Amino acid sequence: MRKIKKQLVVHAFTPIAKPLNASIQKNSTMLLLGELPYVNGDKTFNTKFYYIKGIRGMLRHACMALAQECGIEVCHTSEKETFKDGTGLIPSGFHALGTCDPPCILRKIFGAFGEKSSINVLADPIASIKHKEYLTEVPVQKVHIASENRIALTYDGIAIQDFRESYFSGYFSFYIDVTKLTNTEIKFLMESLLYVEILGAGRASGYGRVTIFNFDLQKIETTRNVAEDNKGNYKIVEKATEKPISLSNIEDWRDSLNFSEQNEQNEETVTA
Ligand SMILES: [Zn+2]
């Protein structure tokens, strides 16, 4: 079996992020995937590993911010146009999700309700591993994971509620499978990484700030073969090779979208 895909590998850092998505009584925790053994020297240890939720949403918001700055109207996250009381829900520069014809660049990449997205966003699970050296059977990202005890206070400083939230801190990477995207869409996505800011909850309190250091655009060729060992057991042997893809003039995705035509349309709307 031979498979070729294109992917963006993004390397990032967060001092503290709370991609919280499970609540147990008063405690909000990250999505626990399971326990995983790792090997240090000749000893095996167990650690819990977690899923980083919210990366896709983070990217979507970054793309919305880029489009807005360029004056290109794209889908909002809401498919409703108004709140229950009739006031407008969609800010200027956006249209209700899935209402564009032809589909805008954001919808082509992220899809809409009932429409498949053209990208897959993946991240290896994260785990708190105490040892410097470690070996795992599947790829795992080593970060710091802990819980914070927080107390909500009244104005007079009286504790009214205490709760726990889990967070992670450290370097992490994620992958965006861009095999189905055109070069224009890939360039748009690459430039949108400049607008990535917040992952997960607690923005107002300063949580979730994400710094992106660099990224690679790669062509990955994977081959899988069945091999028989000397005991007569079959094994799947996988080999992957990666090559860098270089795209010049990242910012020229704007021209490819036929900018002038869009501006004309906007002018017509104003006149009407
Ligand atoms: Zn749209």
Describe it.
The protein is α+β, with helices and mostly antiparallel strands and 272 residues long. It has one domain. It contains 5 helices and 12 strands. It has helices at residues 55-69, 105-110, 183-192, 253-256, 259-271, and strands spanning 2-17, 20-24, 27-40, 43-51, 74-75, 94-95, 120-122, 126-128, 141-153, 159-177, 211-228, 234-244. The strands form 2 sheets. Strands 3-4-8-9-10 form a 5-stranded mixed barrel. A hairpin with a 2-residue loop joins strand 2 and strand 3 (27-40). Helix 1 packs across helix 3. The model is unreliable at 260-272 (pLDDT under 50). Zinc ion is lined by residues 74-75, 95, 100, 103-104, 106-107.
DSSP strand (E) fraction?
A: 35-45%
How is the quaternary structure best described? single chain
Largest sheet: 5 strands, mixed, barrel
Following the backbone from N to C, one meets helices and strands in this order, namely EEEEHEEHEEEEHEEHH
The overall pLDDT, averaged over residues, is: 88
Tally of extended strands?
12
Structural Rg: 23 Å
**Ligand inventory:** zinc ion
Q: What is the helical fraction, as a range of percent?
A: 10-25%
Low-confidence stretches: 260-272
- Biggest sheet: strand arrangement: 3-4-8-9-10
Work out the count of structural domains: 1
Shape: flat
Structural class: alpha+beta
Between the first and last Cα atoms, what is the distance in angstroms? 57 Å
Per DSSP, the total helix count is 5
